Amino acid sequence: MRALIAILLVVASSFAFGQSTNTITSTVTGTTTVDKTPPTASAPNIVLNNQDVCSYPASAAVQTQIFGFAAGTTVRDKNCERIKLARSLYFMGMKVAGVSLLCQDKRVFEAMEMAGTPCPYEGKIGEEALALWQTNAERRPDEREYKKRAGIDKKEWSRDDHGNVKFEDPDED
């Protein structure tokens, strides 16, 4: 009997809880603003993984409200190339060719001359090369600075009986 009463109470309570109703109403008013900024131009990423490359990456980007532009490139380092080529020539046993290649840089050219070891000139080295460089100043990498130092633009040069270069001022008589 107790079991029957317990079952009736469970059934009655389920009807009581199942019959409840809740009503919720709400009204939302307001304005929505959409703020859309223009997309940003991103500069391209340029990667050089090789350590033996004589170039470096450069990229840039510009963005306005209407137009965006991005570009990238690589820039060659010619001095780096010259050094690597000279090193290769030196290791192949072509030392004069390696030095000649480095001498195309006016800093190296002037340093060699200041050290008393002039750069090679068409296969000639030493004093012979120095005389040829003085004679053919237009072929020097430091031509402008050399002519200014030597005053060649004001003086005329010639060779004496021993092949040495001498300068004469045409205004002196």
Distance linking N and C termini: 152 Å
Distinct helical segment count:
6
Average of pLDDT: 78
Poorly predicted parts: none
Would you report the number of β strands? 4
Given the C-alpha coordinates, what overall shape results? elongated
- Largest sheet properties: 2 strands, antiparallel
The residue fraction in helices comes out at: 25-40%
Query: Percent of residues in beta strands?
Result: 15-25%
Spatial ordering of strands, largest sheet: 1-2
Q: Oligomeric status of the shown chains? A: single chain
Estimated radius of gyration: 43 Å
SSE run: HEEHHHHHEE
What would you call the structural class? Answer: alpha+beta
Topology:
Elements: H1 2-18, E1 55-63, E2 68-76, H2 78-91, H3 95-102, H4 106-114, H5 127-135, H6 143-150, E3 156-159, E4 165-168
Antiparallel strand pairs: 1-2, 3-4
Structure in words:
This protein has 173 residues and is an alpha+beta fold. The chain is built from six helices and four strands. It has a domain at 78-168. The protein is 38% helix and 15% strand. Strands 1-2 form a two-stranded antiparallel sheet. The chain starts with a helix and ends in a 5-residue tail after the last strand. 8% of the residues are buried.
